[in-house]
Amino acid sequence: MEPMESLGDCPVIVVGAGPAGLTAAYELVKKGVYPLVLEKRDRVGGLARTEVHRGFRFDIGGHRFFTYLREVQKLWEEMLQEDLLWVKRRSQIFHGGRFFNYPLELINTLKNLGAIESLKILSSYFKAQWFPPSEEKTFEQWMIHRFGRRLFDQFFKPYTEKLWGLSCDQIQADWAIQRIRGLSLFSAVKNIFLKTNQPKTLVSEFQFPVLGCGMMWESFKSGIEKSGGRVQVDSEVLRLRREGSLIRSIISGRMERRSKSVESMLSPLCPFRNSSYGSILYPLRR
Fold first, then answer.
1. Which of 178, 202, 226 delimits the end of a domain?
2. For residue 196, what pLDDT is reported?
3. Of the candidates 183, 186, 185, 139, which has an alpha carbon nearest to the alpha carbon of residue 163?
4. Domain total for the chain?
5. Count of CB atoms within 10 A of residue 70's CB?
6. Residue 183's pLDDT is what?
7. pTM (two decimals)
8. Which residues are CB-neighbours of 148 under 8 A, at least 6 positions away?
9. In Å, how far are 134, 162, 213, 278 from 251, measured between CA atoms?
10. Are 83 and 133 contained in the same domain?
């Protein structure tokens, strides 16, 4: 018989200590609700965590902190205060053994690509406009329509699959729409010549924690625990015990966590628009 842990003093379980899960838990403790957060890795942050190796800190991916929402900005500043720095953006794409400035610059781009390759990319782009995909359900279809097959195969496909570990035909088009809305080969070339408004993903200045993006989520974890909530790492959720749509208990490692007084249901909670980092087990009171 596996040991049981009562949830009589834990009305909410958060599955996953990524940005959304930790933010949700932090907001709950401020309202007097003390959740239990379960994270399968040995540190918090999810895909926005910072790994530490021999004293050096490495971010998982190129994350940055920028928002137009004042309430989100206030929350970040509340967590890190003077440790949240403003940083000038300087981005480059390493492709074909050369560095391309990003956003693209005319001289730099033409010099690195060369006239012949530039014409091939443009030809592939126009072909995609004249003969677009019959549907745009996948990331691959969405990108080919906006950049052409040649640029997709050379850059976007290997980069995306390396970063996310999924084939581009297995990623939904909605994922691209959320992250790079308004960006296409046409808009990139147009911006080179006219310096028009850039997509919101191409901001020139952003905020960044002094010790890496994971510092933000480590601070959330600390804030949750100081306020009475709990964050348990190395606690992978293996399965859910349910009856219909109601979650009776969850299995985490060798522990089964359940509540005898209330029922629970699984519900995604994403405090930031278009986020999908965590889920919540809410008590369902009769």
1. 202
2. 56
3. 139
4. 2
5. 8
6. 61
7. 0.65
8. 121, 122, 123, 124, 125, 126, 127, 128, 185
9. 44, 31, 30, 17
10. no
Instruction: Identify the domain boundary among 202, 234, 263.
Output: 202
pLDDT at 189: 61
Q: Are residues 55 and 130 located together in one domain of the fold?
A: no
Same domain, 214 and 82: yes
Helix (H) or strand (E) holding 208: strand 205-209
Q: How many CB atoms lie within 10 A of CB 258?
A: 18
Angle between helices 115-130 and 106-113 (to 10 degrees): 100
Q: Of 165, 169, 147, 168, which is closest to residue 157 (Cα–Cα)?
A: 168
Structure confidence by residue, pLDDT tens digits, 254-278: 565 554 333 333 443 333 333 333 4
- Bridge-partner residues for 93, per DSSP? 100
Is the same domain home to 48 and 182? no
Identify whether residues 145 and 186 lie together within a single domain.
Answer: yes
The CATH code of the domain that includes 171 is 1.10.3110
Q: Residue 161 is part of which domain span?
A: 91-202
Residue spans of the chain under pLDDT 50: 1-8, 259-286
Neighbours of 52 (CB within 10 A): 13
